[in-house]
Amino acid sequence: MEGGGRRVVAVGAGLAGLGAAGRLRGHGSLRLLEAAARPGGRVCTRPFASGLAEMGAHWIHGPSPGNPVFCLASQYGLLGPEAALEENQQAEAGGHPPLPSVTYSSSGRVLSPKAVSEARDLFYALLASTRAFQGSKEPPAPSVGQYLRAEIARRVPTMAGGVEEARRLQLAVLAACLKLECCISGTHSMDLVALEPFGEYVSLPGLDCTFPGGYSSLSERLLSALPEGTVLLNKPVRTIRWRGSFREEGDDSRDFPVRVECEDGDAFLADHVIITVPLGFLKERYQEFFQPPLPEWKVEAIRRLGFGTNNKIFLEFEQPFWEPEQQLLEVVWEDESPLEEPSADLEANWFKKLIGFVVLQPPEQHGHVLCGFIAGKESEHMETLSDAEVLSAMTRLLRRLTGNPSLPAPRSMLRSRWHSAPYTRGSYSYVAVGSSGDDIDVLAQPLPEDPQDPRPLQLLFAGEATHRTFYSTTHGALLSGWREAERLNHLLQPPIPPPLPPQP
Ligand SMILES: Cc1cc2nc3c(=O)[nH]c(=O)nc-3n(C[C@H](O)[C@H](O)[C@H](O)COP(=O)(O)OP(=O)(O)OC[C@H]3O[C@@H](n4cnc5c(N)ncnc54)[C@H](O)[C@@H]3O)c2cc1C
């Protein structure tokens, strides 16, 4: 394996790193260095209750032939029979798959589906209208949030036929829709998400599906396809020295431009390094992570792009308090409105950012488990609390929503903490106000930038945040890894030119 060929090191064994490693051809040796004790990164399945909990990625978004995660998972036989159905793959859900739901309000009542759907339909019509501003030189607002709120404000006088109580309720539902959008975009507020490039994100067709054996079954399959010893776990990289001239001790015959130094003192010399660390990690550590430092244009893209937090809270119950057909329990705070500033008192009100709960299916596998979603600063505050504090806040919340003060407390709880995770520092990327899709392309650009450099492609960049149309997804991550592997393959194994035509 070692031989005299080019040496490649990949940093990070998430889907981007595993995908890149599986696609590389014609190199001499390959090492994949992972900081954590397990592969998968933000794909992370844990046992919980009688089933599994997805701490990171949950669904294949848009499971259809254009989605490489769906194709691989199908090929490996990792999906249930429903996901394979033609009609499932063709359904257009636009990133918001419909689930049978019930909506609880903060006053302890279940809201009428009609009242909820009227406001929700308005929200999704407005959200869809944001696509019209793609490429616009003068979008009506800098952010998605500001645009939506202005459009909602314009409609207030005629909303709900002008009936005050019904209008308030519609505004409360719209506020809940905005919070859900924060979870989807992985941001504290939609006011941080840029309006003009928002439509560049592509939703693939297909009704989102899950992995019956856990999302990690995919990363495990990708890992098992690599030669043994390729992946080194518990190997956090501290510094990547590039544009250098490094030699192995006692071997003067070869000179490598890159030296990858780990926190435990180990070092790996390489011709090429594929960097797949999350944008959150790069934002925090780019200064000391690269020596010499990255060029300013790259740093600017890292700074400008957005990377926020979305967390999950899993609650296991002895008995369900919801109906068997209900798959989504939504929460509406009746005193909220998108036209008013949300409370900044995180300690007192953090749990109000929770959008509701997905019921894990099927209960025969998982038990009676709800998975709550919460984004933004409130989510980051939740990470600082103890398990007992979160459990007690969730119990109080559910008692209030159901109007049942003696609703039994959950039997157990598990939550993610992506913002505190030192090698992730958040959940996923978004195109923030002040940045654009071009920044994503800049982030993906290899270094050194001069294509004529005699030692090209020293640093290559992959990971979900480097995919211009599928950022924030597993398929974006996988495709970005494949993209960088192909870039190297092209250098290491240039395509064989077609035979010359016979000479006359
Ligand atoms: C809560 C949550 C829910 C999500 N839900 C979905 C979903 O339903 N569907 C979907 O498609 N996507 C979802 N995503 C997004 C999806 O999980 C990610 O886009 C994707 O997994 C990212 O893969 P990646 O390889 O780019 O990064 P990662 O998976 O983060 O891999 C990067 C790896 O680099 C390692 N690393 C970092 N620093 C170092 C270092 N210094 N040295 C060595 N290793 C290092 C990390 O430990 C990590 O393993 C979700 C994410 C989260 C957090």
TrEMBL record:
Q: Amine oxidase domain: from which residue to which, for each copy? A: 15-488
Chief place where the protein resides: cytoplasm
Pathway where it operates? Amine and polyamine metabolism; spermine metabolism
Q: Name one GO molecular function term.
A: N(1)-acetylpolyamine oxidase (3-acetamidopropanal-forming) activity
Keywords, A to Z? Acetylation, Cytoplasm, FAD, Flavoprotein, Oxidoreductase, Peroxisome
Q: Where in the cell is it found?
A: Cytoplasm; Peroxisome
CC cofactor: FAD
Name any GO cellular component annotation. Answer: peroxisome
Which GO BP terms apply?
Answer: spermidine catabolic process
Q: How does it assemble?
A: Monomer.
Per its record, how is this protein called by name?
A: Peroxisomal N(1)-acetyl-spermine/spermidine oxidase
Q: Which organism is it from?
A: Lepidothrix coronata (blue-crowned manakin)
Gene for this protein?
PAOX
